[in-house]
Amino acid sequence: MRPELQRPRGTQDVLPPHSWKVEGMRQLALAVARRYGFEPLETPIFEQSAVFLRVGENTDIVQHERYAFRDAGGVDLTLRPEGTAGAARAFIENGLAQQPQPVRLCYWGPMFRRERPEAGRFRQHTQFGAELYGSELPFADAEIILLATAVVEAAGLTDPVVRLNSIGCEVCRPRYRTALIEYYQGRRAELCEDCQVRLERNPLRLLDCKVDVAIRAEAPDIADFWCEACRTHYEAVRSLLERAGRTVRRDPRLVRGLDYYTRTVFEVGHPSLGESVALFGGGRYDGLMESLDGPKVPAVGFGMGIERLLSALEGRFVATPLTPVYVAHLPGFAEEAQLLAESLRRQGVAAEADLLGRSLKAQLKDASRRTRWVVLVGGREWESGQVVVRDLEQGSQETIPYDQLMQWMGIEAAQVPLSGRRWAAADQRQD
Fold it and tell me: What pTM was computed for the model?
């Protein structure tokens, strides 16, 4: 295949059976979010570039990793690199500040960042996230973290570890920022190229560097600069999480890569993955709405990369498609097999029938790759109102009346109205 016809670097084709894991994770995440009172939100895949420039102009995501373009009308657009800014824009534009507070929203969908691809990191990746608007209390921070860790546990990683920090507020962070700059200025000659730029544009991101680790280890600790309100807020979040049974560790070097964060920042990991591996992160961003010309509304949330989470879960998360029924048929009974398959589908059962005109032997071979149940249509059994059912897992076979088929397989039918001609093909043959 010619290179220009292959998928772009840093993307992937999500094929069965892995695609069922992705879909299973989506359903699981939304079900857990629903238990916490969060409602689904869907925003456009692209936004006006100003949405991201307003909230993170000096970040790596905006400066180097954006997929930006102008449409035919000359509008400057960006494929969304993360979900929080677009969700905030939707909150403001749709007047959700006028609804009863707090507002709890969650989302699922693709994000786009032109970063270096590696294991679990793609230029197009799927993200599940949640946003809680309208509460500045530490209870809100704790609820968001409990929701996030509940998703991880439900997927199969028990006892996740919360790495927690506070990056202060407009009262105490400026003093810390000054101390951080002074420290790094004294070691400027030792800094990597990226940190040389960060020192000028976004000093807190210096603590994110994976190269200058030794320099970072001796940097000032922001806890020494917290104001009393930030200290109280941090301790309340930590206490709530620990009393709820979560393992919490303070990480003094933990920051976030976007400018709108304040106070609480967190990442979630797991002992099986090592200390340095984060499954996802989030935090509080009380100034985000105002940066988008919205009302002053406190907010807290997280974004979870699904590819990284599924990679970490390995064989612990198992999601399979609906167990289908394969309706095979003897020669001359192809139409009856199609009608029986359709009847099962109308009752809520996934059913397949041969579409290639294959022999019975070829049908059974095909069924062995696809399903557990095989229903055989044709012969004297069909004429007497029966079908042969094979359980490929158990290696057993039984002849039963076809109106008892669902009960025999232990499948609960959906409440879907059936046509009065349900067994039309069989009735005609009996006549």
Answer: 0.85
